[in-house]
Amino acid sequence: MVITQLMKLMQEDDQAREDENQEVVDENQEEVKENQEEVDENQKDEEEDQNKNKRGVSIVSSEYDSISSE
């Protein structure tokens, strides 16, 4: 009887640890998801900045060419 109770307590402790570990895993996965969203947003912003810079260089080049040809 005592052994059965002890085994049951051990199983409950194991389950409690597994539940706690799963909570940590879930929290970590959520953090990874949030970080990936931030990375994606930063990459999008960087691409937009690069496109703006390309347009700016193109405009300056065009203006320089028109001034040079005058």
How is the topology of this model organized?
Layout: H1 2-69
Count of β-strands: 0
Radius of gyration: 30 Å
Q: Kindly report how far apart the N and C termini lie.
A: 103 Å
Order of helices and strands: H
The chain-level mean pLDDT equals 89
Low-confidence stretches: none
Approximate helicity band:
over 70%
Class computed from helices, strands and strand pairing: mainly alpha
Main sheet specs: none
* Count of helix runs: 1
Oligomer: single chain
What is the 3D form? rod-shaped
Measured by DSSP, the beta-strand proportion falls in: under 5%
Give the gist of this structure.
With 70 residues, this protein is mostly helical.
Description of the structure:
With 70 residues, the chain is mainly α. 0% of the residues are buried. The model has no long low-confidence stretch (mean pLDDT 89). 97% of the residues lie in helices and 0% in strands. The chain contains one helix and no strands. The chain starts with a helix and ends with a helix.
What keywords describe this structure?
70 residues, mainly alpha, 97% helix, 1 helix
